[in-house]
Amino acid sequence: MKRKCCGVPAWQRGEWLSPAQGRALCRCLVVVLCAAGAGFGETQAERGKRVVDQAVQALGGDAFRNMEDRTESGRAYSFYREELSGLSIAKIYTRYLTPAPGQLSSRERQSFGKDGYSSVLFTDLGAWELTFRGARPLTDQRYDAYKDSTLRNIFYILRQRLGEPGLILSSQGADIFQNLPVEIVDITDADNRTVTVYFSQSTKLPVRQSFRRRNPDTKDWDVEVTAFSKYRDVGGGVKWPFDVHRERNGEKIYEMFSDSVEINRNLTDDLFTLPGSVKVLPKAK
Q1: How far apart are the two ends of the chain, measured CA to CA in Å?
Q2: Contact call for residues 194 and 169 (beta carbons, < 8 A)
Q3: pLDDT of 150-204, one tens digit each?
Q4: Domains of the chain from N-terminus onward
Q5: CA distance 247 to 252
């Protein structure tokens, strides 16, 4: 009578693993080895700081931290319930201001169409939609959501917020995400905003971020996830993702495929201020 080998793994019994079992075992070994090696003797805060410092260096180090402005050109897609609801040629201009803890310290103009026939302007003072009719202030809800998303954006954090009083970096260890070994770090500010960021263990670059925010209408939590890929050198050793994909509560809501990204182009004030002659319309409802 053949004795049963209950509870003994197949590889210990000299049996071959299936391809799926082999892949699973390899993933487990990668996570264990990375956690045991890279994080040995470190606190969560020390490991989190190390991972974030490595990301800054991978993005260009001082050249990234001293980036003054950026222009991204490409195709922007918006979605509603997984269906394409909008497609436009887009040009996004960003200029960084002197950092102020917990405050929006940048200005951004999003222009759409080949001739930029419509734009949305976000500043530290307010936000407007610009068309041939004039400038319509955005709702407080939309502006607040933009500010919150910007303050939790990993690239904004790495450029503007490192060293900010009350900013906590806490490593959540190593893992495998879509067959990619990653380091996971929670970043929390003094106002208790938290974003969870996945950094590639090989390139050190951010590949994913997620956070949750209370929906002002339903009072439930919205979970927003953004993925970054196809990094390229955009000048001076600075790297930037050319593909950005965003989901909310598991549904795709936005994609941006950049054709070009330029930095330090000395963008002028007129891009980020309302023209004196523009007609200011009633605030959007």
Answers
A1: 80
A2: no
A3: 999 999 999 999 999 999 999 999 999 999 999 999 999 999 999 999 999 999 9
A4: 44-271 (2.50.20.10)
A5: 4
Angle at CA of residue 47, ends 42 and 51, nearest 5°: 150
Alpha helix stretches (DSSP H) within 39-100? 44-59, 62-65
121: its two tokens: 């302007």
φ, ψ for residue 236, nearest 5 deg: 65, 20
- Give the position of tokens 């530290």: 124
pLDDT, mean of residues 17-43: 58
**Among candidates 157, 163, 205, 171, which has minimal Cα distance to 47?**
171
- Cα angle 46, 50, 52; round to 5: 115
For 87-123, how does the pLDDT look when each residue is reduced to its tens digit (9 = 90+)? 788 999 999 999 999 999 999 999 998 776 789 999 9
The most confident of 6-15, 81-90, 276-285, by mean pLDDT = 276-285
Q: Give 185-189 contacts, CB < 8 A, sequence gap 24+.
A: 185/48, 185/51, 185/52, 186/48, 187/48, 187/52, 187/154, 187/157, 189/102, 189/151, 189/161, 189/164
Spatial distance between the Cα atoms of 80 and 215, rounded to a whole number of angstroms? 17
pLDDT digits (tens, 9 = 90+) for 236-281: 999 999 999 999 999 999 999 999 999 999 999 999 999 888 999 9
* Burial category of 261 from C-beta neighbours within 10 Å (exposed 0-12, middle 13-18, buried 19 and up): buried
Nearest-angstrom CA–CA distance, 118 and 177: 38
Alpha-carbon torsion angle 70, 87, 226, 194, nearest 10:
80
Residue 86 pLDDT > 90? no
